[in-house]
Write a structure and sequence with these properties.
Layout (H helix, E strand, L loop, with lengths): L3 E6 L6 H17 L5 E6 L5 H8 L5 E4 L16 H6 L4 E4 L2 H6 L4 H13 L3 E6 L3 H5 L3 H12 L5 H4 L3 E4 L13 H18 L2 H4 L4 E4 L7 H5 L6 E4 L6 H8 L4
Parallel strand pairs: 1-2, 1-8, 2-3, 3-4, 4-5, 5-6, 6-7, 7-8
Helix pairs in contact: 1-2, 1-12, 5-7, 7-9
Bound molecules: 2-phosphoglycolic acid (PGA).
Length: about 250
């Protein structure tokens, strides 16, 4: 069954002491509020994974990474493998974020490799897809998303597909304060779920949680999460404040 999920993507923010404060703040907030039916995931930068993982041992959240190498362990200077993440207690990993596609030229083929390596280590991929403003204005958003999903994910067998999370993140909404309307989000989420139904079947499609990401905040989360095919959010800026992040995690009806 689809899970309700709120994942925080800290991106390349915070120094060690600040990260320590933030994760302890999140842990305290989680003790105050009831998030029993929600999987809360925190994705800090690599150097803070161990810190966050240690706090997670006594708290109600899971640890995620923001990226992983598309190679197995070996001579790949500067990279971090899926098995290393696993050894740090990481259970989730963001893959194919638009910032990685844009600044690091990540391709759908590499994203497919990353997903394979994560699943081999029993780490759940949170796979990001989404169109740019130009693509939306040109009416190409459905095609772009179909291509990202087909080339990046649909090589998986049905069993593995069911283990993945998808995040719809319109690039024009990320860090811009310009959120997709709840209707725009629902339209694309339903489109993605329908693609899964067509390629696999409805049972598989009903297992995959689809998150919305892009300027999601405590004010708009409730409306977005109330939509039929929106199973939660991938939160950037608002995940850097413990109170806002947990308020978002409490935004399900
Ligand atoms: P934002 O980022 O919430 O700051 O828009 C979301 C994301 O990029 O995952």
């Amino acid at each position: 069954m689809r899970r309700r999920i709120v994942a925080g993507n800290w991106k390349m923010n915070k120094q060690f002491a600040e990260a320590d404060d933030l994760i302890n703040g999140i842990s305290e907030q989680l003790r105050e509020f009831d998030t029993t039916d929600v999987d809360v995931i925190v994705c800090p930068p690599y150097p803070f994974l161990e810190l966050v993982s240690d706090v997670a041992e006594d708290a109600e959240f899971f640890v995620g990474a923001q990226n992983v190498a598309h190679f197995d362990d070996g001579a790949y200077t500067g990279e971090v493998s899926a098995s290393m993440l696993k050894s740090l207690g990481v259970d989730y990993c963001i893959v194919g974020h638009s910032e990685r596609r844009k600044y690091f030229c990540e391709t759908n083929e590499q994203i497919a490799e990353k997903i394979n390596r994560l699943l081999q280590q029993d780490i759940t991929p949170i796979i990001c897809v989404g169109e740019s403003l130009e693509e939306r204005e040109a009416g190409k958003h459905f095609d772009v998303i179909k291509q990202q999903v087909t080339e990046g994910i649909f090589h998986l067998k049905a069993d593995d597909m069911q283990r993945c999370i998808i995040a719809y993140e319109p690039v024009w909404a990320i860090g811009t304060g310009k959120t997709a309307t709840k209707e725009q989000a629902q339209e694309i989420h339903a489109f993605i779920r329908n693609l899964i139904t067509e390629h696999y079947n409805d049972d598989v499609a009903q297992e995959v949680s689809i998150l919305y990401g892009g300027s999601c905040n405590p004010k708009n989360a409730k409306d977005l999460f109330a939509m039929q095919d929106v199973d939660g959010g991938l939160i950037g800026g608002a995940s850097l404040k413990a109170k806002d992040f947990i308020e978002i995690a409490c935004s399900f009806e």
